[in-house]
Specification:
The protein has helices at 3-9, 24-38, 41-47, 54-57, 59-67, 88-98, 123-127, 140-153, 160-168, 173-184, 192-198, 205-215, 219-232, 238-256, 270-301, 308-330, and strands spanning 16-20, 48-51, 77-80, 106-110, 132-135. It is of the alpha/beta class and 332 residues long. The two termini are 39 Å apart.
Length: 332
């Protein structure tokens, strides 16, 4: 069950809850929402136990905590925090202890791994339908809703371009939230320019738009974005453009390999990147990555010349070569 589905539907809670996925801030919110539903503040302290670190590794403490009777409440809740940090043997012991949770009590396991994780295998996968699983992995829709709610909670507003840039940044939502708070302090409508000037998570959004357009075969759009950046900053545009292109090809290269995956903070983009990675293939994705990286190196070392026109010509050449990589993959 996705994070917002859990909030919206308020499903029944049994003996075991697994909060999984990769967004710490959503995991914290899911846990607090769960506790608010099940344990009113006046009885919470007497019926809530939080265990972490060595306390979880010692499975006997978990068994003892979940077996205790609730006090003036319908249930007792035990929360095993930061389970993703445990060693394999400790994870096995915790799973055995979880089986002893009696009806009426609830063990909440906060295991911030992808639900698809295999090494180690996620507790959500182990539990299957025996647990209420809350997935905090942030899809594009989840990121957008979270950001809009965050802005609204601050009494602020934002232009659509600013929201789109925050969604596309790929940064964890805790960092996004911090930057929204910082930018919203101005008390006026948040613009893309505000974010570009003040935010730590918005790094050259136009450069990433150029990169994604180029690998997707939208060559005219990519060149138009590059021209716009060079018009704004003739001396400083080349490295952000080529760095963004290298990052995009690195993701595609990872996905195109057999069994390939990408970092958790980028997984919300997989449904967009997978078709491109399949079409491009690992060899062409690697070639695009290397061309972009070598371009950055040429600028940094001075091999490409020091004149902005030289840098612009280099970006144009690499862009054209990468566009050809995409065209040759579509002819296969």
């Amino acid at each position: 069950m996705k994070f917002y589905e859990f909030l919206d539907k308020a499903p029944p809670v049994g003996r075991l809850v697994v909060i999984e996925g990769t967004e710490q801030v959503l995991a914290e919110r899911a846990l607090e929402a769960l506790l608010d539903r099940l344990l009113p503040p006046e009885i919470r302290d007497m019926n809530l136990v939080r265990l972490r670190g060595e306390e979880i590794g010692d499975a006997s403490q978990v068994r003892e905590a979940v077996a205790a009777m609730p006090f003036l409440a319908e249930r007792r809740i035990v929360v095993a925090m930061d389970v993703h940090t445990l060693r394999a043997q400790e994870r096995r012991a915790l799973w055995e202890a979880a089986q002893s949770t009696p009806e009426g009590n609830t063990l909440v396991i906060v295991d911030l791994l992808s639900p698809r994780a295999t090494r180690p295998q996620s507790f959500g996968t182990l539990a299957g339908q025996a647990a209420l699983r809350i997935d905090t992995t942030a899809s594009e829709e989840v990121r957008r809703r979270f950001i809009v709610e965050c802005i609204g909670a601050l009494g602020a507003t934002a232009e659509p371009r600013a929201i789109a840039a925050l969604v596309a940044s790929g940064s964890d939502l805790a960092s996004v939230s911090n930057d929204v708070v910082k930018v919203a302090l101005s008390g006026r409508k948040i613009t893309l320019e505000d974010l570009e000037r003040e935010s730590l998570v918005i790094a050259d959004p136009k450069a990433y738009r150029y990169a994604s357009a180029l690998v997707e075969g939208k060559t005219s759009e990519a060149f138009a974005v590059a021209q716009e950046l060079f018009a704004l900053d003739p001396r400083g545009a080349a490295i952000p453009l080529l760095s963004a292109l290298a990052s995009e090809y690195a993701l595609l290269w990872d996905l195109a390999r057999p069994g390939g995956t990408i970092a958790a903070r980028h997984q919300w983009r997989e449904r967009y990147l997978h078709p491109v990675a399949r079409r491009l293939g690992a060899r062409r994705a690697r070639s695009g990555y290397e061309r972009a990286v070598h371009g950055v190196e040429a600028i940094v070392t001075g091999r490409s010349g020091s004149d902005p026109d030289d840098h612009r010509a280099l970006v144009d050449r690499i862009s054209a070569e990468c566009a050809m990589l995409g065209q040759s993959s579509r002819r296969r």
